[in-house]
Design brief:
This is SUF system Fe-S cluster assembly protein. This protein has 107 residues and is an alpha+beta fold. It has three helices and three strands, in the order H-E-E-H-E-H. The chain has a single domain, classed as GMP Synthetase, Chain A, domain 3 (2-Layer Sandwich), CATH 3.30.300.130. It has a three-stranded mixed beta sheet, with helices on one face. It is globular.
Length: 107
């Protein structure tokens, strides 16, 4: 079982993994793009990610969640990864981090 500190460290590692996955249409990682709505880590190393896509018709709707699952699963302490897609609330550019908005020239 993981301690609270280890769970926080794992959550931080998961965020770093997510920051290395990019939306193919927008040159910003999916975390700063605001596609990750929730991230939970259990004391058994299970990771649950609630995410969205920029639109329901996103061309990577089939592959992006699988990529997230596979890359997060590579972390040593992770025992299971569940990725759930939601469109509630719908993604909007205001969900992007300030850094992402600056990178894309959105003010």
């Amino acid at each position: 079982m993981l301690t609270d500190d280890q769970m926080q460290e794992l959550a931080d590692q998961v965020v770093e993994v997510l920051r290395n996955i990019y939306d193919p249409e927008i040159p910003v990682n999916i975390y700063d793009l605001g596609l990750i709505y929730d991230l939970k880590v259990s004391d058994h190393g299970e990771v649950e990610i609630l995410m969205t896509l920029t639109s329901p018709n996103c061309p990577v709707a089939e592959t992006l969640p699988t990529e997230v699952q596979e890359k997060v699963r590579t972390l040593d302490v992770v025992t299971d990864v569940k990725v759930q897609i939601t469109f509630d609330p719908p993604w909007h550019k205001d969900m992007m981090s300030e850094e992402a908005k600056l990178e894309l020239g959105i003010f």
